[in-house]
What does this fold into?
Amino acid sequence: MAVQGPFKVNFNEVFPFGLGVVGAVSAQADFDASTRENRVQQRDKDTGEPVWVVDVMDFDPEARERTFKVKITAPVQPVPPDAIEGLPVRPVVLEGLMVTPYLKEVGNGRSRIAYSLRATGMSAPRGNRVQGEHNKAA
It folds into this structure.
């Protein structure tokens, strides 16, 4: 069985400790259609909606890559949740999360499996998601 293309995943299973926004949401450039003088925003090939990009941080203390980019396909620019006083990042939940596996070259002719994340929106966590599922009192 070969998995091709993106597949839907549950946010809480991928990020059990939570996730935080560490940068601004910006338009993803379409590098094939853009020129030096005219930057064109990328559009989703299936829906035709604009693609946005945001830097996020995985709250998992054992995460291999702590910060990375997530693309969000939405008709308007997504707005991150409000900041929480005393926290350097804004906790967030990605809606409609999809994962696309691909091979990433790591040098010396070697590759490893990497993952590209795409979502359809973002919202504020509900409950005590800042500390993560594993740290909640029972």
Notes: The helical segments are 11-14. The CA atoms of residues 33 and 40 lie 6 Å apart. Residues 20-135 form one domain. The chain has one domain: 20-135.
